[in-house]
From TrEMBL, chain A:
Organism, as annotated: Ictalurus punctatus
Cellular component annotations (GO), alphabetically ordered: blood microparticle; haptoglobin-hemoglobin complex; hemoglobin complex
UniProt record similarity statement: Belongs to the globin family.
Keyword field contains Endoplasmic reticulum: no
Gene that produces this protein: LOC108257039
The keyword Manganese is assigned to this record: no
Lineage, opening ranks: Eukaryota, Metazoa, Chordata, Craniata, Vertebrata
Molecular function terms, GO-annotated: haptoglobin binding; heme binding; metal ion binding; organic acid binding; oxygen binding; oxygen carrier activity; peroxidase activity
GO biological process: hydrogen peroxide catabolic process
Key words, A-Z: Heme, Iron, Metal-binding, Oxygen transport, Transport
Gene3D superfamilies: Globins
Globin domain residues: 3-147
Protein name: Hemoglobin beta 1
Pfam families: Globin
Automatic annotation (TrEMBL), chain B:
The encoding gene: zgc:163057
Protein known as: Hemoglobin alpha 2
Pfam families referenced in this protein's UniProt entry, alphabetically: Globin (PF00042)
PROSITE patterns, A to Z: GLOBIN (PS01033)
InterPro entries hit by this protein: Globin (IPR000971), Globin-like_sf (IPR009050), Globin/Proto (IPR012292), Hemoglobin_a-typ (IPR002338), Hemoglobin_oxygen_transport (IPR050056)
Amino acid sequence: MVSWSQSERSAIADLWDKINVDEIGPQSLARVLIVYPWTQRYFGKFGNLNSVAAILGNPKVTAHGKVVLNALDNAVKNLDNIKETYSKLSQLHCEILSVDPDNFRLFADCLTIVIANKFGAAFTPEIQATWQKFLAVVVAAMSSRYF
Amino acid sequence: MLSALEKQILIDLWHKLIPVAEDIGSEALYRMFTTFPKTKTYFGHLDLSHGSGHLRSLGKKIVVAIAEGTTHISTPLFTSSLGYLSRYHAYQLRIHPTNFKLFNHCMLVTLACHLGGDFSAIEHAATDKYLSAYSAVLAEKFR
Ligand code: HEM
Ligand code: HEM
């Protein structure tokens, strides 16, 4: 079990409050597809992903980026119970979508970089550390139902 | 593989950072120590507080080394030009290779914070590939 100090709880809540899911979600998904092109294998149904411009302009990428980041809201609201919160979602990614869970960390890294790009110096090293502790728990939870 | 366009992007980006090499390098190191505390074990002999003289001087050396490396991307000189740093990290410092990934990530976060709109997905992708190639050379003498 991970434990969270009061200051970690408020750092995560404060940062999450400032995040516009509709902006950060699509950018993060686009970056994972651009920086780590093997992740494109799961999105064959999304149409044209052949270039940076195509990925950034693809409405399905935009829509799905919002879906994924909205799902993160459940983790922010259930800090003490992230594993249970993502149990079904982990099972879906394993059994139905067959996503290699190593990609979860890559998505998390891209999300962190997009947030750094958005907030600049306000994304201090201390906030980064707490945020990445949170994402590490999310990634572990998303990977927990793989057997 | 880095394309000719990516190579040019990297040369421009890293040479622009040389005048602020101390700031960028020390921040990347400090972010690494804060987010991944185990990395501090290699630096017990240095003052690791934010903006310390040690971090600024090491940070500057690292950024300058990365910037100089851009000149040799995708040429046969790339690996040999890093010979000294590769021997140093492998035989003297003996850094566990996973730490390079942690450092590279913190460097990307630092660049994202400082460069704003100049660190789009294109610069991000090129820098990620380049730093992976660079640290693969630093780690290759390990075994
Ligand atoms: C923290 C990480 C992630 C979260 C929270 C997350 C969340 C979600 C959610 C909420 C859905 C919709 C599920 C539904 O329709 O019931 C979904 C679908 C999906 N996810 Fe993830 N996801 C994550 C990472 C990834 C990664 C890294 C990949 C692949 C590289 C991936 C591939 C997919 C695919 C292919 C779908 C189905 C898309 C479709 O056909 O509409 N996910 N994900
Ligand atoms: C791409 C990544 C890296 C680059 C370009 C790089 C480059 C350098 C350079 C240029 C120096 C100074 C050498 C000199 O004084 O002649 C150095 C020293 C050092 N590096 Fe790295 N390095 C990298 C990654 C790492 C990582 C990941 C670690 C460990 C977590 C590490 C640990 C050290 C240590 C302990 C020193 C000696 C510091 C001192 O005593 O002053 N390096 N590195």
